[in-house]
Amino acid sequence: MADNSNVSSDLIWEVCRTVTPIMRKMCGTIVDPDTLGPNNAYLVKRRSGGGSQFSKDPLNLMNKHSRKYDGFVNSKAVGIHPAAKGGVAMITKRSKHQNRPAANKLEVTWPGNKSGPKIYKGIVNYTAKQKYRADLRQEAVARASAIRQSHRPKKETPEKKVRGAKAKAAAEKES
């Protein structure tokens, strides 16, 4: 990668993600086109919904294809996933070992019997103390909350009570 300190990395990412293969050579002098090109291994394109682009990146909290949420682009990232027995697991990407993917990920797990607020407080405290991005804290807690809610058993719908004339007719029939 060339040293372009006067060019914002956000701008480079936005330009290089939509370029054609011919233009990728020009972006290659600024940033690695295989990493930030218009396609990557995590990208999911959908024609429905106006051509929405989603991401399968495990460190992407919102599953949106954007620089803000992509974990493989940012040096520090957070991912929340379901764990065994109704628990919640948080995967964090450390900036220490950038070239060693197995060494730069750390997983913290909360069991399913922990209360929701304790899990959310643990996520917020961990990300704050480790100086992770503050803009992702609310999304991380929302994701953990959605995972916890999906683990709850679904309530059965109660039988509908008859009302009005049908109720009177049913009462007369029983007596």
Tell me about this structure:
With 175 residues, the chain is of the alpha+beta class. It has seven helices and five strands, in the order H-H-H-E-H-E-E-E-E-H-H-H. The protein has helices at residues 9-16, 21-28, 33-36, 48-51, 116-129, 137-151, 165-174, and strands spanning 43-45, 53-55, 77-82, 88-93, 105-110. The strands form two sheets. The chain has a three-stranded antiparallel β-sheet with strand order 3-4-5. It starts with 8 loop residues before the first helix and ends with a helix. The model has no long low-confidence stretch (mean pLDDT 82).
Keywords:
single chain, 175 residues, alpha+beta, three-stranded antiparallel beta sheet, two-stranded antiparallel sheet, elongated
**Radius of gyration using CA atoms only:** 24 Å
Secondary-structure element order, as H and E?
HHHEHEEEEHHH
* Beta strand count: 5
| Major sheet | 3 strands, antiparallel
How far the N terminus sits from the C terminus, by CA atoms, comes to 87 Å
Unreliable segments of 5+ consecutive residues: none
Number of helices: 7
Give the amount of beta strand, in percent.
5-15%
Mean pLDDT: 82
Write down the overall geometry: elongated
For the largest sheet, list the strands in their spatial order. Answer: 3-4-5
Helicity level: 25-40%
Structural class: alpha+beta
In terms of quaternary structure, the protein is single chain
